[in-house]
Amino acid sequence: MRRPRIIPILLLSKGGLVKSRRFKDYVYIGDPINAVRIFNDLRVDEIVLLDIDAGKENRSISLDLIHEIGEEANMPFSVGGGIRDVETIKNIIQAGAERVILNSHAIKDFGIVKESSSRFGSSTIVVCIDYKKTLLGKKQVFVDGGSRKTGLTPLEAALLAESHGAGEVIIQSIDSDGTMAGFDRDTIEQINRTLTIPVVALGGAGNSGDFESLYQITPVNAIAAGSFFVFQGKHRGVLIRYPAPSSYNFLSK
Hints:
The chain is α/β, with parallel strands linked by helices. It contains nine helices and 14 strands.
């Protein structure tokens, strides 16, 4: 059996890196280029950088920053944030990113997924699906930073992404984001069991056991986290780390 890719997720805001809890309460954690250098030394599988301001500021993630990251990064990296058209995707790929992550605009119009995957290849296009429970307790996909519901369930959105040509989906629980209290394993298992494309699980990792127990239930292609890789101890002191994948007991059962 293969092991899953282990991916740090880095959030960009106002030129720096931040970390959220349930998509709010953002905490500054440092400089993105410095973080990339540290992750180089730690030999991470890959990294994801998401500009959380881009959508609301009606722009896309900075191409200059992507160039800078590409000059520093020794690992594959993917980027997202405010991407609305195929021309922007072309520029991002030319700037050095291996994959492009589509979020709100793709969920609103899956046509961009179809067009971009046809033009650049499905392996280049990733759709990030953010969801949380509504007041009635139903899990629903939200867009625009978790502020607007779509009426889609996570599975429905994932199937639409797949059918329109996405090469991979990121499944992110807003309710679990930054809590370090474990993954929403039921939702991830349902989607991973149903889709034929790779699934990345995100939201809630607090320790290596969370990675291991999720993988034993459903062998996703990749497991991602934010807080787990940047916070240390009960007071959540900032310390970038990356336990070697060989230290996890993924294949113990």
